[in-house]
Design goal:
123 residues, 4 strands, alpha+beta, four-stranded antiparallel β-sheet, 2 helices
Amino acid sequence: VVGRRTLGDGFPNAAQCIADFGANALFCAGPAIADWQDHDLANLAVAAAIDGTQTNTGTPAAVLGHPLTALTWLIGALQAKGKTLKAGHWISTGTCLGVVPIRPGTEIRATFGKVGELVVTFD
């Protein structure tokens, strides 16, 4: 879940994103997807609904063309610093839906084509 903790409205500019941990407000993990390699991840239909009303649609191609491209970039950037990913690390490759305003009590339902869905309610 992306969000901003800095002052202002809308999506933060690049400097604000960097200062705010990449606008990472919350990470929600669903169950493991055993057959993820069998899905066309870049073209997976992704949609979000807020309180039952669809707000955004997109595909993971919005994340550097393919989410595995973002992961590959991260691995290279870490290797350049002498670091590596380790078992148990969680990686978020980015959003393909953008930012929508929420308030306490808001329910967001994200559907990921035939792969599954994730529902989050903000208190």
